[in-house]
Design brief:
The complex is a heterodimer of chains A (251) and B (292). Chain A is built from eleven helices and ten strands. With 251 residues, chain A is α/β, with parallel strands linked by helices. Chain A has two domains: 172 residues, 3-Layer(aba) Sandwich (Rossmann fold), CATH 3.40.50; 65 residues, no CATH class. The C terminus of chain A is likely disordered. Chain B has one domain: ABC transporter involved in vitamin B12 uptake, BtuC. A two-stranded antiparallel ribbon of chain B has the order 1-2. By secondary structure, chain B is mostly helical. Chain B has eleven helices and two strands, in the order H-H-H-H-E-E-H-H-H-H-H-H-H. The C terminus of chain B is likely disordered. The chains are: A alpha/beta (251), B mainly alpha (292). The interface between A and B is medium-sized, with 24 and 17 residues.
Chain lengths: 251, 292
C-alpha cells in the first residue's frame, strides 16, 4: 500500500470539512475521488500535502506516518497539482516548470525532464519564454501538470484537472493522465467530472460532506444507482442531492 | 548647464544609496506584503557595526564593511524571527506586522541610545573625499566610490533574484506562498533569506551614509526617503525601487539646488503623495488590494 489514510478529521474556521475519512492508494493505481463542490475533496489533498493540518487520524505513506511539513511531503515523492490552474503568473513558463524540480539536484537530469515535459505538451515549448499569466486556461492546466511531473513524484495528487476546460481539452488532459500513469506514476485524482474520472480510474471513492459514502472499481460505480443519480446526472437531480448541495453551501 | 549636470551626478550618487535601502523595503514587501519600518533601524545598526569594526576592533575597511553587511543581514533575520514570524504563524492581519515593525524600529533606536549613547559619531577617513574634475564638472571621489559600490551590490541582487534558482523560488513565493510550498519550497527559509538580503543591503547603505554624513541613533529616519522611493517605484518591485530611488535622489538635489534646501523634504513627500494619488501602484507596481 503506497498511501493509507485512516479516520481523518479536518476542521477549520468552524467547518468540519473531513469527518473520519479512510482510503488507500496502491502503487500503480489511478484512484479517483468524486464529490460535489464543498464535499472536502481539496481539503483531503491539502491534508496529504501538509497545507492543512488534520486534528485526528493518520496519513501513512509506505507504511510510515507522513510528515506534516508541506515541503518535506514533496521531498518524499508526493506532489500536488493544485486546482484552478495555480501557476506562478509572474514567472515564465520555463521558470514555472523548473520550480517543479526545485528539490532535485543534477542539471542534466532536470534538463532531460524539461524536454520530456515539452514533448508531452508541445504548446508549452512554443510559449516557454512567455509569462505563465498570459497563457490560456488549458495551457495553464498543462503547465501545472508539467510542473508537477518535473518533481518526478511517486504519487501525484491531481485536483480537478478538468475544471473550466473545453470538452476537447478535458479529453486531452485525461488522456495525458492515463499516459503518465502507464509510465509508472501512481495518481490520486479528485474530480467533479464523474463520468470521465470513473472511466479512467482503477478504483474510486465517492465523497459526500466529508465522508466516503461509496467505494469500488470505476466500472462498478458507474453502474451504481446512487452514484448515477447524484453524480452522473442519469436521472433528474434528486431532492437528496439538492439538500446535500445546499448543506455544503450553508457551510 | 554645468550646474544641471552637476546636480544630476549628485542626485544619482545619493539616489544609489537610497536604492540600496529601498530594495530592502521592496523585497520584504514583495514576500510578506507589508512595509517593514524596522528597516531603518537595521540600516542604523549596520552603520554602527561598521564603525565598531573600524574604531574598536581595528579592522581594515573591507572587513569592517563585511561585518556591517553580515551583521545587519543577521539582525534583520533575527528581527523577522522574533517579531514577525509568530504573527505570520497566527495568520493575523498584515496591519499587525506593520505595527510590530514600528515597535521594533523604536526599540532599535532606544536600545542604541541606551547602550551606545545618543551622540553623533563620525567615520574615520576611510575613503578619499577629494574631487575629480571632468571638463568643468567636479565630482567627489567619494560619490563615485559610493555609486560604484551601490551599483555592484544592486546588480548582484538583481542577478540573484532574476537569474538564479533560489531567485525563482523567491519570486514564486512572493506570488503565492501556499503554492510555493507544493513545489517543496520552505517559505520560512525564503523569508529568512529575503530578510538577510534586505538587511545586508541596508547595512552597506548604513556604512555609506555613515561615511558621507554621520552616525547617530535616529539616522533610520533617512530611510523614510528610501521608503518613498520604493513607493514611487512600486512597492514590491526591485527595478521599481532602484528607479524610484534614482528619481527621488535627483529630484531632491534639484529642489535643494534650484529652490531651497529647506524645500527638499517637502518635495520628496509631495512627490510620494502625488504618485499615490495618480498611480497608486507606483511606476513599476501592479495594483493589489491590500497594502499595509
Amino acid at each position: 500500500m503506497l498511501l493509507e489514510i485512516r479516520d481523518l478529521h479536518v476542521a477549520y474556521s468552524g467547518i468540519h470539512a473531513l469527518q473520519g475519512l479512510s482510503l488507500h492508494v496502491d502503487e500503480g493505481e489511478i484512484v479517483t475521488i468524486i464529490g460535489a463542490n464543498g464535499a472536502g475533496k481539496s481539503t483531503l489533498l491539502n491534508s496529504i500535502s501538509g497545507i492543512v493540518r488534520p486534528y485526528q487520524g493518520e496519513i501513512s505513506y509506505r507504511g510510515k506516518t507522513l510528515t506534516d511539513k508541506a515541503h518535506r511531503v514533496v521531498a518524499q515523492g508526493i506532489v500536488q497539482v493544485p486546482e484552478g490552474r495555480q501557476v506562478f503568473a509572474n514567472l515564465t513558463v520555463e521558470e514555472n516548470l523548473l520550480l517543479g524540480a526545485y528539490l532535485r539536484t543534477g542539471k542534466a537530469s532536470v534538463q532531460a525532464s524539461l524536454e520530456e515535459a515539452y514533448e508531452l505538451f508541445p504548446r508549452l515549448k512554443e510559449r516557454k519564454t512567455q509569462y505563465a499569466g498570459s497563457l490560456s486556461g488549458g495551457e495553464q492546466q498543462m503547465l501545472v501538470i508539467g510542473r508537477g511531473l518535473m518533481a518526478q513524484p511517486k504519487l501525484m495528487l491531481l485536483d480537478e484537472p478538468s475544471l473550466g476546460l473545453a470538452p476537447i481539452l478535458v479529453n486531452l488532459i485525461f488522456k495525458i493522465i492515463q499516459t503518465i500513469n502507464k509510465n509508472g506514476m501512481t495518481i490520486l485524482l479528485v474530480e467533479q467530472n464523474a463520468h470521465k474520472a470513473l472511466a479512467v480510474g482503477t478504483r474510486a471513492y465517492v465523497l459526500e460532506t466529508g465522508k466516503i459514502i461509496r467505494e469500488g472499481s470505476g466500472e462498478a460505480l458507474l453502474k451504481d444507482p446512487v452514484v448515477q443519480e447524484a453524480y452522473l446526472g442519469t436521472k433528474r437531480e434528486t431532492k437528496k442531492r439538492k439538500e446535500a448541495d445546499s448543506a455544503t453551501w450553508a457551510l | 548647464m554645468n550646474m544641471v549636470l552637476q546636480q544630476i551626478i549628485n542626485g544619482i550618487s545619493i539616489g544609489a544609496v537610497y536604492a540600496l535601502i529601498s530594495v530592502g523595503y521592496s523585497l520584504v514587501y514583495s514576500i510578506l506584503k507589508f512595509s517593514n519600518f524596522a528597516h531603518g533601524g537595521v540600516m542604523m545598526l549596520g552603520s554602527y557595526f561598521g564603525l565598531l569594526g573600524l574604531q574598536y576592533l581595528g579592522l581594515p575597511f573591507p572587513l569592517a564593511m563585511a561585518l556591517a553587511i553580515v551583521g545587519s543581514g543577521l539582525l534583520a533575520v533575527l528581527n523577522e524571527r522574533v517579531a514577525y514570524r509568530p504573527i505570520r504563524n497566527r495568520n493575523s492581519p498584515l496591519l499587525y506586522l506593520l505595527i510590530s515593525s514600528l515597535g521594533v524600529s523604536i526599540f532599535f533606536e532606544n536600545f542604541t541610545i541606551v547602550t551606545i549613547g545618543p551622540n553623533f559619531r563620525t567615520y574615520p577617513p576611510v575613503l578619499p573625499t577629494d574631487s575629480l574634475m571632468f571638463g568643468g564638472l567636479s565630482v567627489g571621489r567619494l560619490d563615485i566610490i559610493i555609486f560604484v559600490m551601490a551599483a555592484v551590490t544592486l546588480s548582484l541582487l538583481t542577478w540573484l533574484v532574476y537569474g538564479t534558482k533560489i531567485g525563482n523560488a523567491i519570486r514564486a513565493t512572493s506570488y503565492n506562498m501556499r503554492v510555493s510550498r507544493l513545489m517543496g519550497i520552505n517559505p520560512d527559509m525564503i523569508v529568512a533569506l529575503v530578510f538577510f538580503l534586505a538587511g545586508a543591503s541596508a547595512g552597506l547603505g548604513g556604512v555609506l551614509f555613515g561615511i558621507k554624513y554621520t552616525v547617530w541613533p535616529q539616522m533610520g529616519i533617512l530611510t523614510l526617503k528610501a521608503f518613498i522611493a520604493a513607493v514611487v517605484g512600486g512597492l514590491g518591485s526591485l527595478p521599481g525601487a532602484v528607479v524610484g530611488a534614482l528619481l527621488l535622489g535627483t529630484a531632491e538635489t534639484f529642489a535643494a539646488a534650484f529652490v531651497s534646501s529647506a524645500f527638499r523634504d517637502l518635495f520628496s513627500f509631495a512627490l510620494m503623495i502625488l504618485i499615490i494619488l495618480v498611480r497608486p501602484a507606483g511606476l513599476f507596481g501592479k495594483i493589489t488590494e491590500e497594502k499595509a
